[in-house]
Here is the input.
Amino acid sequence: MTKGFEHGLFTMDRRRMLALGLAATLAPLAARAQTLTPPVATGSGPVRGIAGEGYSAFLGLRYAAPPTGALRFMPPAPPVPWKEPVSAAAYGAPPVQMYARPSGEASSALGRSLYPVFPHARETREGREDCLFLNVWTPAPDAKKRPVMVWLHGGGHVYGSGSWPSYDGANLARRRDVVVVTLNHRLNAFGYLNLASAMGETYAKSASVGLLDIVAALEWVRANIEAFGGDPSNVTLFGESGGGGKVSALMAIPAAKGLFHKAMVQSGAGLRAIPADKAAESAALVLTELGVAKGDTAALNALPAAQIITACYAVQARTPGSLSFGPVLDGVVLPRNPFDPDAPAQSADIPLVIGTNKDEMTLFLASSPWFGTLTEAQLVERADQIAGARAPALLAALREARPGYSPTYLLAALMSETAMVADSYREADRKAAQAAPVFMYRLDWETPIADGVFKTPHTLDIPLAFDNIETARVFVGPGPEPQILADQMSAAWAAFARNGDPSTPKLPWPRYDPVRRATAVFNVESRIVHDPDPKVRAALMA
Here is the structure.
């Protein structure tokens, strides 16, 4: 693929793709605005959602007080209750975002064409500190106790929300008879800034307030989901990318014990948390950039949110790699690494589904100037930089496992394996040492958009698992194949939520163990493969 041809892939049919995606995104929203449900009682007050065809949606439900003013960087507090029915017909504000580009704009025409699926720019504009809202989709707010599926969004712990089009829970709820919950929580500095050293004991939990927001949302589910037709004793926590890392962390957080009963980690294994001292160093750099003195909490709380994010960008630009946000091993909220050196005992009884996509990294690499033009010599050089002594064996194994891959795609595969697949194996192996079952999967189906430039990229599993094909046509492409995959994956996800086993009549799915390594490989014709690509795995884990 020449560079010129590659550029053509990024621009071809952009208007058609964008229009298709926007139409699919906006049409269900317009339909929902027609009828409100009767009031449903919650512990904070009554709410009225949207009555859809075969489901009801309750959007923008406040599960905690606004974390602003004196509550900034503090654990979530209960919301102020209300008496009159509140409309739940629109999403709440997304969290303050820290997307890779301060403007929130995509860096390529192809990236911009995918905006209906990945609305970074809109959420960067609309992000607010007052963001602690969740959304519920249910077949009916009745007395039927359905499995509850609580979704944690991706975004590397710094951007995203529970209201992306791919996360719409209507289809999953009505077609699979489950209750779906998505949520917002604090991100980036607002969710993970370790201020304990700089601001004192009052801020002992500041590095984990983003995770404590999720705990508060799960507590809301336990207290209220029965009124929406859900079963609080059958809650599955699932998430992708950073959301998978959050699921992994919550399996080791004592405050979350008993709030969920099954777990799914999609392309986001989380073995280790950020050390507390490194997180404190990051916080110190941000405070210095802001000109806030140690112990001056009043000055810190008085700053506009945008100024704090601007300071984070400045620190990143000046000292790359010095600033990282995510679960912190603070010894208070998170007392141990989630899955290192072993699986946490507190979640030994929680079944786990874990897996990845075949070509994860293409989503991040496809707009790079070298993508499609990489030479063999450049491949070997970059592979050595990434994988070190493992590079020759890993490249040889990948050449055998992916015989048609060019140097560009071999490098993307190597990066995918080292960045995401390896830790998924480690998390699965460590969890398999406990009593509860583990189930492994890999998505192999390739999206045809832009002449197949992405193959099987990061996030492709999301619209398939949520059964949101029409909303995501701009990403999954035309034709019947995406729906075939969605039928399979959403059925398996719902089966796991229902009974802890993702097996379906079309795809019996045996549990994973470190010897046979049974893996569900999803494609138009899905199948179980024992130890797929064993030479790749052996080289990867050497």
The two ends are 33 Å apart (CA to CA). Residues 1-33, 102-106 have pLDDT under 50 and may be disordered. The chain is about 40% helix and 15% strand. Residues 359-453+477-542 form one domain.
